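tool=predict chain=A
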Amino acid sequence: MVLLALAYLGGVLTILSPCILPVLPFVFARADQPFIRSGLTLLLGMAITFALVATLATVGGSWAVHANQYGRIAALALLVLFGLTLIFSSLAERLTRPLVALGDRLSAHTAGQQGHAGASLLLGMATGLLWAPCAGPILGLILTGAAINGASANTTFLLLAYAAGAATSLAAALLIGGKLFAAMKRSLGAGEWIRRGLGVLVLAGVVAIALGLDTGFLTRLSLARTAGLEQMLVNNTALRRPTQTIPVAGSSLPVEGNFPPLTGATLWLNAPPLTPAQLRGKVVLVDFWTYSCINCLRALPYVNAWAAKYKDHGLVVIGVHAPEFAFEKDEANVRRAIKDLSIPYAVAMDNDLKIWQAFNNQYWPADYFIDAQGRIRGHAFGEGDYDKSERVIQQLLAEAGFQNVPGGLVDPKANGAQAAPDMGDVQSPETYVGYSRAENFKGQSYPDQPHAYGTPPPYDRNQWALAGTWTIGDEKAILNKAAGRIVFRFHARDLHLVLGLDDKSRGDKPVRFRVTLDGAAPGAAHGADTDADGNGTVTSQRLYQLVRQQGQVEDRTFVIEFLDPGVQAFAFTFG
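tool=predict ok
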């Protein structure tokens, strides 16, 4: 119920978001019709269609993406026709005659008749196909959860609640707008001009959507800071329990639940399988991570340091490797990452996310602190607050009666991608390359088929594009021919990109690449995986640090050119 309420409230806030602007003309074009019969029906069709299409696009295959593309084209055509009927009464009359027999007149009010519910429902369904709301924290949590947990009725209900919230705020606006339009027509006698003006606005909305402004410029435009409002809602519900709520040493730590079973692991590395019963009497830290996650990589030096510091004083650390991408399920890849990251403790490969679900976890990284009696006594989600986490470990060890527990706090000196971020300068979000979660892509995407891409500059901040022949899949893009590039206009100190090799075309043969910043070699701004000239090599599937700027951070244009085919690109992260 909390999730449904949160999704609904997130939808209500979309009325303040610039991404609602392109669909407003379609809604207000029915403002002078009876609300129950016309406006409410339109909003119902919009909400239901959006929820169904978003569910399919999130958890379905490429066929859903293709189907939605064709549906958007049909919806745009229908709404163009609708806009024209508002402008030209004669066209409305011609179209109405054959549709009367079907009981579905497209724009009955242009002929001086009452709107038909079927027509409004059809227009609402078309609007639902086109609506692309800005993905704030609430919608982001819904879509991420759907991508992780797969298809379910919960996903559809949450998306429907989100759409219902948007429909509620639009309904209020429609009721107010209907009264306003009626008053204007009475006082000015301008009904015909108002109708034509709405027709022009409908056509303008169609053009805006066709040009991608609803998912491009308007997504980046911040008119009302709805993301901040949504984040406040998330932080004040049971959906998110921030690390700041963990009490420090000397205070009472609450009991948050019992230690769930660890039977869902597909494989254990560095140790034989462990169970809660075996670990009774020990303090346990369960750390959820995945090796290409930049946030996890930056937290690991602290987890490693705690494991070393307290291993002889009653602490057992268990790493639960919960993969985000398919390549992170590969045993050899995980073993290589464990070796490269010098992880000495037991790691459970949770390829089916069974342990993840047993803990009801939702974050990378996530730490759960379990006392000697097998009770969860604290948690930490995301990066930061490491001092508080270590004090929780110390308190639980003291409660369990362990003697000579070391004091003080660890201060690991991490390098490369594991170094602490400069979050004050990060103005670019994590960005996925695969079509299932891609945002801010400049140009048209052609899912699951080779296509020659090439989008000319200029690029707005956080826009990115491909050049060369690529095949975009649901979670990655694969370069089919040499000399392919990825361009990203970003603002952050560090830029990372998750890359891999395509086994079918490349095998284990490395892929060479070259990085530039604003058209020049990076020099001192090169990352751990590039040199000053920008040269580097993709040798395995992992996160690559490509840029680490020195001094003042500003908007930069990043380009990576791959000199060989067969590279896989998954996601950008920043720090």
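Residues 2-235 form one domain. Residues 99-115, 214-225, 238-249 have pLDDT under 50 and may be disordered.
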